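Notes for week 9. Today we move from apo structures to complexes. The key idea is that a small molecule is not decoration. When we ask for a structure prediction with zinc ion present, the ligand SMILES becomes part of the input, just like the chain. The input block below holds both the sequence and the ligand string. Read it once before you look at the output, and try to guess where the molecule might sit.
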Amino acid sequence: MSSACMARAAPSNCEPRATKPLMTQAKPRPPCPICGKPNVKAFRPFCSAKCADVDLGKWFSNAYVVPGEPVSTSDLDADDS
Ligand SMILES: [Zn+2]
């Protein structure tokens, strides 16, 4: 018997190298666009509900500040006749 591996010899030499899952971050998550912290799955793409709220507030403030004058449909309808 020359094949030591076939027999129950040194397992560390015979076994294929086990691939360990990385203990640290497997994938770098894109950072929170508000504060730059790693995002949280529940609040993607933000890190927390707070940052999501901040972003929402930004959108609202942008929505209020619209370029040009606001168009009212009722005014157009009155002008037609
Ligand atoms: Zn954040």
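The radius of gyration is 30 Å.
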